[in-house]
Every structure is written in C-alpha cells, then in structure tokens.
Amino acid sequence: MTAEHFEAAMTRRAIDEIKVGKRIRRDMGDIESLAQSINDLGLLTPILITPDNKLLAGERRLRACKKLGWTTIPVTVVKAP
C-alpha cells in the first residue's frame, strides 16, 4: 500500500481519549526535556492516531504534553482503506 491510499486530517483530541496499546519502544528517554521544548516552542509535530483514537506514533510527545498539564493535543488522524 502506498501513501496515496491513506487519508489524513489534522485536528485536536482530548488527551484522555487517546488509547495507548502495546508499544515497541521501552525507554521513553528524557520526557522532562521534551516537555520543556514543547513548552518553549509548541508541539511542532502532531501525534498520529487512528479514527478510533488509537495511538500510532508520538507516545513521547503525548507523555510530555500530559506532563505539561495539557487536556487536548494536536493530532493527525490517519485512515487506511
């Protein structure tokens, strides 16, 4: 499947609606520094989720935004056929 088979839309979602399933990455690295960067510069790259709010990419960004006390987060909703 190539990129033209996917639909994507940017929007915002409540952080508590994002469902984080089993992840490959175990070490989240320095979330505190990432949170500080997001606080200073904003969230430059939205997290990726499915239409039913399952996280595809961006767990570190999600955790950092939670740490900052955000209640909503910019997302790109990716829908595959």
Structure description:
- 25% of the residues lie in helices and 27% in strands.
- With 81 residues, it is α+β, with helices and mostly antiparallel strands.
- The protein has a single domain (3-79), classed as Conserved hypothetical protein from pyrococcus furiosus pfu- 392566-001, ParB domain (Alpha-Beta Complex).
- Helix 1 crosses helix 2 (59-67).
- The mean pLDDT is 89.
Largest sheet: spatial strand order? 1-4-2-3
What is the approximate shape?
globular
Biggest β-sheet strands, sense, barrel: 4 strands, mixed
Total beta-strand segments: 4
Measured as a percent range, the helix fraction is: 10-25%
| Content of β-strand | 25-35%
Number of helices: 2
Query: Which stretches of 5+ consecutive residues score pLDDT under 50?
Result: none
What integer value in Å does the Rg equal? 13 Å
Average pLDDT over all residues: 89
Order of helices and strands: EHEEHE
In CATH, the architecture is: Alpha-Beta Complex
CATH class: Alpha Beta
**End-to-end Cα distance:** 10 Å
Would you tell me the structural class of the helices and strands? alpha+beta
CATH superfamily: Conserved hypothetical protein from pyrococcus furiosus pfu- 392566-001, ParB domain
CATH third-tier fold name: Conserved hypothetical protein from pyrococcus furiosus pfu- 392566-001, ParB domain
Number of domains: 1
